């Protein structure tokens, strides 16, 4: 069972057990949790919510007594199959798409492998911590058992059982409002962005993007001839007042509301509502990139913007590259029902379908609870790595580097003084075996800010501590005397 997104407010007068009870009850009645779907264990949910187990036990007992949940000896706790149908009211849908049946400018890669696995590499998770034995067993089993029909051409929308599993995960963990037939499986978030641009944007259309923003989105959205319109961000996310001043020709807005790339803040509720209001009034689309929402360190994961959308103007994009490993090459979109057929047709024209063997193994990985267990374990590992990075930066790189935000994700952004050329710093870091990204390269407009993006997902705490010491030497100019004093080896990833 995936992590369940429940809102817990310690400052309100409502007891914790009542908040858990109401959150679960509303998730069932609203359709986020479906009949027969397994819910987290009381111990697991208490850990996810950061509360003691007693309030969760009390809430589960009440829900069991009222018939919303049912227990199965040796299997866990499930949503009752006997909840009256007239109580189960999923959000209203438009269009005639049938509901799927329920069932249980891109930057070049580093030149060599050592560089790709060097300290501070952006976008790389802890590949050394992935449960490869479990994954290999699943891949092998499905490879041996593939039927002839599964070895032929697949559904452009993706394997049905994987779309069901993804939809269940998103409803429970990200508060996304969706059915399985709204999910499309694609080869990563970059493919999802390129597909969305092909369906929603014509040559010459204007699309608003965050400034600074994700370079991959800038490339994907402009590849078909759309005009990029940079909109500044602040501590509350994209500045919607600035978006409104861009005029009525903007056809879409690309945002990373749960963890803004690259600076890190989360979009506030008021900004989210303002963005959705803008999209509804302008008949525009919102592209929500939820690229690493699973990893948050100062609070529970924030619900998706898509779940707040009452007018079906949001296309939701996610990926397994950060949660699992990049080479899995699986991402997904959740599209409004009115757009589904257009997306499926366009997806077939791109690369037809995602490899079936990977989809089969991933569907089992999700359904069997391995994904949820992996995420819970990785949150603790990434928290330790983030803390080691921040401690090392504070010890070796202050005051030359000022951290912007470190609340979530697998990287931190730091600001350099304006007179420092961050691209030159990155070049000097590269000579010492450190891989980072210059913040100035994330801007589209003329106004740029100097800084560094430092990834911590793929390096151990010990390695990060040593890397920050070397970075401090670079920032102080001490690298000029000994530019090759440290070489990082590939096997240092798990050192």
- Helix tally equals 15
The average pLDDT score comes to: 86
Radius of gyration using CA atoms only: 23 Å
DSSP strand content = 5-15%
Task: Report the strand count.
Answer: 15
CATH topology of the largest domain: Aspartate Aminotransferase, domain 2
What is the CATH class of the largest domain? Alpha Beta
Shape: globular
- CATH architecture of the largest domain, please? 3-Layer(aba) Sandwich
The first-to-last residue Cα distance is 32 Å
The helix fraction, in percent, is 25-40%
Which structural category fits the helices and strands?
alpha/beta
Which strand order do you get reading across the main beta sheet?
4-11-10-9-8-5-6-7
Largest sheet, strands/sense/barrel: 8 strands, mixed
Low-confidence stretches: 85-114, 489-495
Secondary-structure element series? HEHHEEHHHEHEHEEHEHEEEHHHEEHEEH
Relevant CATH superfamily of the largest domain: Type I PLP-dependent aspartate aminotransferase-like (Major domain)
């Amino acid at each position: 069972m995936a992590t369940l997104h429940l809102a817990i407010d310690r400052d309100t007068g409502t007891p914790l057990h009542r908040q858990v009870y109401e959150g679960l009850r509303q998730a069932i009645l609203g359709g986020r949790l479906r009949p027969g779907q397994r819910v987290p264990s009381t111990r697991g949910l208490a850990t996810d919510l950061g509360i003691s187990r007693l309030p969760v036990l009390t809430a589960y007992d009440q829900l069991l007594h009222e018939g919303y949940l049912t227990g199965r000896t040796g299997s866990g706790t499930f949503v009752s199959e006997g909840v009256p149908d007239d109580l189960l009211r999923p959000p209203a849908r438009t269009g005639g798409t049938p509901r799927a049946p329920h069932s249980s400018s891109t930057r070049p890669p580093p030149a060599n492998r050592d560089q790709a696995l060097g300290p501070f590499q952006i976008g790389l998770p802890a590949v050394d911590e992935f449960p490869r034995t479990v994954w290999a067993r699943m891949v092998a089993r499905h490879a041996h058992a593939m039927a002839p029909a599964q070895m032929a051409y697949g559904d452009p929308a993706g394997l049905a059982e994987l779309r069901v599993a993804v939809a269940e995960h998103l409803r429970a963990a990200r508060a996304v409002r969706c059915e399985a037939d709204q999910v499309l499986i694609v080869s990563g978030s970059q493919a999802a962005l390129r597909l969305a641009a092909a369906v929603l944007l014509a040559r010459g259309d204007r699309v608003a993007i965050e400034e600074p923003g994700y370079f991959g989105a800038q490339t994907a959205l402009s590849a078909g001839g759309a005009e990029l319109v940079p909109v500044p961000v602040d501590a509350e996310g994209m500045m919607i007042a600035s978006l409104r001043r861009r005029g009525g020709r903007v056809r879409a807005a690309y945002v990373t509301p749960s963890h803004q790339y690259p600076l890190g803040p989360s979009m506030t509720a008021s900004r989210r509502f303002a963005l959705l209001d803008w999209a509804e009034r302008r008949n525009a689309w919102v592209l929500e990139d939820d690229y690493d929402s699973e990893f948050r360190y100062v609070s529970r994961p924030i619900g998706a913007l898509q779940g707040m959308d009452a007018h079906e103007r949001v296309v939701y994009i996610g990926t397994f590259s950060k949660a699992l490993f990049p080479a899995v090459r699986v991402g997904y979109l959740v599209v409004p029902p009115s757009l589904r057929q257009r997306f499926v047709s366009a997806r077939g024209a791109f690369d037809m379908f995602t490899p079936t063997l990977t989809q089969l193994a991933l569907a089992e990985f999700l359904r069997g609870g391995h994904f949820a267990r992996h995420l819970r374990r990785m949150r603790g590992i990434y928290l330790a790595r983030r803390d080691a990075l921040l401690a090392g930066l504070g010890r070796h790189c202050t005051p030359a580097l000022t951290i912007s935000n470190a609340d979530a994700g697998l990287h931190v952004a730091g600001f350099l003084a304006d007179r420092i050329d961050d691209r030159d710093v990155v070049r000097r870091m590269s000579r010492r075996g450190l891989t980072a990204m210059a913040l100035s390269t994330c801007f589209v407009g003329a106004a740029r800010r100097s800084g560094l993006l430092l990834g911590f997902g793929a390096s151990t705490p010990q390695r990060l501590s040593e890397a920050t010491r070397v970075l401090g030497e670079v920032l102080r100019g001490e690298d000029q005397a000994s530019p090759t004093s440290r070489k990082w080896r590939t096997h240092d990833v798990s050192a």
